């Protein structure tokens, strides 16, 4: 694919004010019935399913005079929930204006992600605090489900695509500064918990109902166990940016996989993980403790070219993002519909396990499972239509088609 003109996100000073997204078509008042599909429900795969939608929610019974859509030969799944996503469609959640951020959100919605947590990357603390204020406005409007701070409280030994000059120890006072800037919308903070202040910061996050995630860490097995005991409950992109498993030094991966309190993130794009590593995670953590994420940067949905990830330049070639300086993998260009298709067609995971990793598990982690993450009456009508080959054909969010299915 020919490279497009370089795209650079808006500079730190060019902040926008959050505003409502353009008006979308409203759900049909008379309701909708989706029939004939193979649906993935909490009880498993159900043949010839019948799902009713009324207004913005899934209904227990078909509304009177409801439109019926025949989905025979298709799959019907709950909308995807992405807890770790830095942008898409040429827009960065770390530095974009409100409209740019909404462009990124819409890009991922068109690929099935109906619930999205906006992730930031390492930057100056004041810059992060200002961006958190903007993202919190979008969270209040319902455009994003919250904020994830990935950095600056991470290890320089495992910095990945983060600026080393801007890294700092996880001082609880500075962690609290970001929480305050997020105005109650901080959902997760990734920390190298072995650094000074790490354990105290984990306790602070747990006390405030914010997920403490172990990631970009050089911790030992024992240090990771201590972090989990202090309240850490997520492994940020397991395997990546952390020591690998050794037979005398099992490291953080072993501790994170073996503890039932921890959900492990996996980037299933064929670049970040070998299929055997993915299978190992599912085998040891089990299908209820895995969350597929994109870790997407602004290049997701934009093709190849040159981009920015925070202050660092990134080249995207054949869909793989790497830092211009040093060549380290820099996030991904993944969308969750591709993660699902790879999981079931390449990794040969049971469909219900892959769907749980994309919907129910992250929804539970965020405390949103009463609203999203499964096809059940009373929940938001966030659902996806895929063909028999797991190619996405339709996306509905809160009862409105984001992508209307074109059925033969």
TrEMBL record:
Region (Disordered): 1-28
Coiled coil: none
Superkingdom, natural source: Bacteria
InterPro entries with a match to the protein in the record: Amidohydro-rel, GlcNAc_6-P_deAcase, Metal-dep_hydrolase_composite, Metal_Hydrolase
Ranges annotated as biased composition (Low complexity): 10-21
Molecular functions per Gene Ontology: N-acetylglucosamine-6-phosphate deacetylase activity
Keyword Metal-binding: yes
Domain Amidohydrolase-related: 76-402
Catalytic class of the enzyme: hydrolase
Assigned EC number: 3.5.1.25
Pfam assignment, any one: Amidohydro_1
Keywords: Carbohydrate metabolism, Hydrolase, Metal-binding
Annotated NCBIfam families: nagA
Family indicated by similarity: Belongs to the metallo-dependent hydrolases superfamily. NagA family.
Name recorded for this polypeptide: N-acetylglucosamine-6-phosphate deacetylase
Species assigned in the record: Streptomyces sp. 900105755
